[in-house]
Amino acid sequence: MKIAFLLHDVYGIGGTIRTTLNLAAALADHHDVEIVSMRRHREQPRFAIDPRVRLIPLVDVRPGSPDLDDPLYDRPSRVFPSAENRHHQYSALVDARAEEYLRYSDASVLIGTRPGVNVYLAEFGPRRALRIAQEHLSHDVHSKRLRAQLAPYYRRLDALVTMTDADAAVYRKRMPLPGVRVLSVPNSVPRPAGPPSDGTAKVVAAAGRLARGKRYDLLIEAYATVAAKHPDWRLRLYGDGPERGRLTRLIADAGLQDTVELMGVRSPIDPEFAQASIVAVTSDAESFGMTIVEAMRCGVPVVSTDCPLGPAEIIRHGADGLLVPVRSAAALAEALLRLIEDESDRRRMAATALENAARFDPEHIAGRYELLFAELDATRGDRARARQRAVLRAGTADALRRVGLLKAARRTVGRLRGLGFARTAH
Length: 426
What we know:
By secondary structure, the chain is of the alpha/beta class. Helix content is 42%, strand content 16%. The protein folds into two domains: 2-184, Glycogen Phosphorylase B (Rossmann fold); 203-360, Glycogen Phosphorylase B (Rossmann fold). The chain is globular, with a radius of gyration of 25 Å.
């Protein structure tokens, strides 16, 4: 079977890229796999790609690239949804290259990995192939306008895969997709190359983009309480982003310069987590929680906010980590102190985390996708699915007709009023 993944830009850094490469490598054990990058902005990808996986960039945006001189490059995309926040990076040239690739692709399975790319998949992907959309964010993160733009395209697909059960339930309730299989399959995280944490380092780690939604300001506030009781412990924040300057000031204002360190970007993050004994996640929302799984795979228990949607589907509170209320510095500090002060409890959770995280192994997740492919292929000609799609099309057409008639009636009433014939209700 030939499987193709469509990515926004495989040459960048991000959780979607990492997990796609993990899954592609696992599927390459038994299938022909290629990755299509809509854009290419640098010479080599930042993450290693399994040599068995082919890489196909569509549009080269590096300085000096001939693609920059193509007249289509300066024209905005007419396919990529305007409400998608990457719309400014898409052009008529991407439209043309995506259409050419998809129409002539011989892949049996085509998998899109972001909303706008999923629209290309629905618009140009051949019906003989299974067309599967992945949602690495979540339904509620998307604007109402974007959801309205996506729905007609998502209804053409074979399946929509979310990262969590909770998000799949939201899609089923708020974006009806008749005949489309809506389910969740979590991201995959491979076993780290090095040994797991031995639990002796007096280090709390956190990693991710330094952005407001990650709430590292809350973590610094909580850690001030921790540092007052355990000045020999350290907090290391890995990542970069727009909040770096503000966080630097917060650390200085709290007098934590010798205790809290901004470490910059590290890739891979596994070796850093293996040098910690606790990992903290303080986000207001997470579509999944890759950092949580990466820490658990290093044998490190995680203290995480119980935010929507992912953490509660990964952490088993009290068994392999701790969940705390969102935006509560006091609860966060209390949970960190619990693991710092009770070494036996911390080591018990660390061992359980290492064991439980095996369910996110790429080979296991690849098996779930292979089962999905088989189920979709077996029901491709299913009459029930065909009827669901037919009812949707008929309903949509009827609704449009009714809207047209209503608009026509309103225009007629307007003309009559203008001529003085419309009656006034009393």
